[in-house]
Amino acid sequence: MAPQDVSDDFVTIKDRQLILKLRSLGAGVEEAEETKVSLLEAAYFADRGVLPMDKEALLAQAARKDKLCREKYAVIKYLRDRGYIVRPSLDGTPYLRLHRKGYRPGEDKTYYLIDVVPKDWTCSPEALIPPLETAGRLRKELAIAIVDPAQDKPFFIKFGRMNFE
């Protein structure tokens, strides 16, 4: 059996040493004797030399289902390079989940939900309601990441909750 298998959504890692390395980096979800890593996380770790795979092939695979995969990859790369753990949502929603700096998944809750949008994004107040409701239901803050491939970093807009008592 190959040390990793690529499916439509995940790369399945079976090599124990690689599983331990990815766990130390806050990546993947362990299942029995293997770990599943999302295609975007796998592309990041392939780019960093942790996974012996081709980053562009992984991004091309991800692009089949997600037209914003390159923008999401840019956000993951930007935040991971700054010490944050950010992962695609495992529940099928299009959001990225950001953990507080210094905490691994499972040690602390997700801090932000990040909705990644293209550089030409326009939005009406009504269009913000679904992501705000999702973040509110999950008791998370919402951040919108606007990604322009010509820029080095995404532009983040934070939405928070407040109450008047």
The average pLDDT value, as a whole number, equals: 87
User: What would the CATH topology of the largest domain be?
Assistant: Trna Endonuclease, Chain: A, domain 1
SS strand fraction: 25-35%
The ordered string of helix (H) and strand (E) elements is EEHEEHHHEEEHEE
Specify the biggest β-sheet: 5 strands, mixed
Number of domains: 2
Q: What is the first-to-last residue Cα distance?
A: 60 Å
Give the uncertain stretches in residue-range form.
none
Structural class: alpha+beta
Count of alpha/pi helices = 5
**Strands ordered across the widest β-sheet:** 5-6-7-8-9
The geometry reads as globular
Q: Mind telling me which CATH architecture of the largest domain this is? A: 3-Layer(aba) Sandwich
| CATH class category name of the largest domain | Alpha Beta
Count of β-strands: 9
C-alpha Rg (nearest Å) = 16 Å
Helix % is: 25-40%
Summarize the structure.
With 165 residues, the chain is an alpha+beta fold. It has helices at residues 16-24, 39-47, 55-63, 69-80, 125-137, and strands at 4-6, 10-13, 29-31, 34-38, 85-88, 96-99, 110-118, 141-147, 155-159.
